[in-house]
Amino acid sequence: xxxxxxxxAPVGIEGIPIQVEVDIRRGLPGIDVVGLPDxxxxxxxxxxxxxxxxxxFRFPGDRILVNLSPAGIRKEGASYDxxxxxxxxxxxxxxxxxxxxxxxxxxxxxxxxxxxxxxxVLSAIASGLQDGxxxxxxxxENLAEARALCGEGIFGxxxxxxxxxxxxxxxxGSYPAGRRGGASQTGCRKxxxxxALWGDIADIKGQPRLxxxxxxxxxxxxxxxxxxxxxxxxxxAARRLPSILPPLSWEESLLVTRIHxxxxxxxxxxxxxxxxxxxxxxxxxxxxxxxGGGKLPRPGEVSLAHEGVLFLxxxxxFSTPVLQSLREPMEEGSITIARAGTSMRFPARxxxxxxxxxxxxxNLGRKQATCFCSTLEISRYWRKLGGALLDRVDLRIPxxxxxxxxxxxxxxxxxxxxxxxxxRVAAAMRAQRARYKDLSFSRNAHIPPGxxxxxxxxxxxxxxxxxxxxxxxNLSSRAFxxxxxxxxxxADLEASELIGKDHLLxxxxxxxxxxGDVYWNYQ
Length: 523
Ligand SMILES: [Zn+2]
Description:
Layout: E1 2-11, E2 14-25, E3 30-34, H1 39-42, H2 44-54, E4 63-69, H3 81-91, E5 103-105, E6 108-109, E7 115-116, H4 121-130, E8 135-139, H5 143-146, E9 153-157, H6 160-172, E10 183-186, H7 208-220, E11 224-227, H8 234-240, H9 250-263, E12 278-279, H10 287-291, E13 292-293, E14 298-299, H11 301-304, E15 309-313, H12 320-324, H13 327-332, E16 334-339, E17 342-347, E18 351-356, H14 375-383, H15 387-391, E19 395-398, H16 404-407, H17 418-435, H18 452-455, H19 460-473, H20 477-493, H21 501-511
Parallel strand pairs: 3-4, 5-8, 8-9, 11-18, 11-19, 12-15, 15-18
Antiparallel strand pairs: 1-2, 2-4, 6-7, 9-10, 13-14, 16-17
Helix pairs in contact: 2-3, 7-17, 7-20, 19-21, 20-21
């Protein structure tokens, strides 16, 4: 007697279908689970036994062998419970199964037989579809997430009894309709998501240069550093960035949702992630939390911020290993996590936003205050970030404390509010998507060095201006490329295919720190 059900194991953000086979034969009553199960999977024996009884079924009094294959992949967590329980019911002939149909089953059981949500459901369904599976039983609470993929036969399951009812009807050839029996079937529907509340850049008083820089950063997805004394509104400004970022494309949305699903951070009942993520880890976060890792590696903040923003407030407070580990994903757009002989790759193309004080005491550059930090202390403070990391930040914006007259009164500048700015950013983004449509990137910040000449064409005026800047500021080749990419974005914001001199000079300005200040010297 043998029952086969496919479940899935997450490997990175990919799911691998796992066959759950159950063999029942005469012998001492008992249940064994083989095929590299971890502690939680082995404990399924006890949960499943009680859940089966409490759902009105009989638990076989024979020797039960549960085999999870392929055996080479480690199985973690409780998401195999429901599959194991159904396989036992099938093998003990208590439950008819639809003939010749492979079914993917994911879900954790509690002792009463209720199905609990699990992480990684979207990945499970994606891998199942790829594998030719067309029937899925998923926890009711993961249904909205599962709905993101247009599957005909996806059923939301609330309990073991409900799962049995669905299988009985499928075996009889009739799909259960609607939500009867605690199960609901879904086609392809769009989830309604509440709009995220990010405030509005109109909340930023004064500081027209800052608002402009936010727009440029958003339009080309350039990394951004905001620095200035406490009270200059760095954090507030960074938190307004999502209000002007356009929504994700369908492909981006799907991948971001898979990452969040794998990490288990999708809120219950959530559907596709449609807006660029905004991640703001605390400076006390561990390297594992930021980069990813764990026994079965899970995505960290750098991956959760994929296609979105990774905001490090008080950036200098983060540990040096954490700051230095950002270089790989900033360069590659992904992060490799090596562990015990295997390595796993997670997407990690984020827009880095750093906020920090200008010096340890925060008073440097303030007109009515004195900074008591020594040159050495200031130098150490900036070195913490490291030249290599800072060198990858295209826009560096010094902020000053908000003046009293700016706190009141409204901003009449043309980019004063998020609705206007978001419209421009979206237009600039469309221009980039069109320009790079057959390439592996879609934003100006990600143009590889080899293609910069092709896409960042300069007129004679702007070429001369760039030459002057290179001489004056002794630009590295990375700085040179960074200026060209930012200038490309500024031209896109003005719907200009050619990069003009003004575009270029504005980009040069962002690359330096502010005039006459001392920060630049401490690199
Ligand atoms: Zn100071």
